[in-house]
Amino acid sequence: MTIKKIVVVLAALVVVIHIKISTSKNIKLTGLFEVRPSNGYVWNDTYDKNSRFYFNDIKVLRWREGMIKPLYNVQASAIEGVWEPLPGYEIIGAPEKLFTLWKPGSVHPKFKAWAGQIEGKWVPMLGYRFILSDGGWTDVVWEPGQKNDYLKITATQIKDQFMAFPGYTFVDPSKNLKVQWTPGMEYPSNHNYISSLYEGQWEEKKEINEPSNDFQNENNYTKGHGWNALASLLTAVIAHDIFDDEEAAKRYIIEGCVEAAKGISNNIKESKLF
Question: How confident is the model over 164-180, as a mean pLDDT?
Fold first, then answer.
């Protein structure tokens, strides 16, 4: 066999080998007789994707869960050959095409965080904050005392529990964090004030006096005149009908009318009609 024929045979062999490599599902051609595992696979003996010659052991491949496929925003799932979107993304259309879009509001599968409006940006859930490291975040932790002025709630010492701002109560705590202003609630740090009828406003608590037998008490002054007038009229009836004393009856009737007039006058003053 001439040298020319040997060269032709070797060239043909190279072409055949490279065609075989290029059509392989699990390995990719990287150079002359050099290959590396396809996306999602690693060499089982070295657990990496470094290139090696085709004549070496290239059958020891394994699917590596969690490996990211560049430019597609997907990662290898637990099932060999199946890809899943990275956190914050969703696959649009046919799964095999791996076309993904960022989905704001989606929940991170491992951390207490939401996908933000900007692609790749995350927002910690209510009551949590990020642990930052090297310009990024590595974890989220519960932060007692964290306030949300929009929702009017504060994170408590107990993880994932909140309390409403002073003056507010939860509408349906078993379903959501919606709150409403509730009049009559004491201010936590000053029990002399209560929530008023107007949202966000507080008023001094008014003491309720017990009923008094003293008819001349300031709060019962008008009622005292009414009782005095009634007593005078009853006495007039007794004086006239039982003791037949017309003079005494007239005197008590006059006193009763005076007391009644005083009571009416006080009522007019209290009502501020004049």
Answer: 94
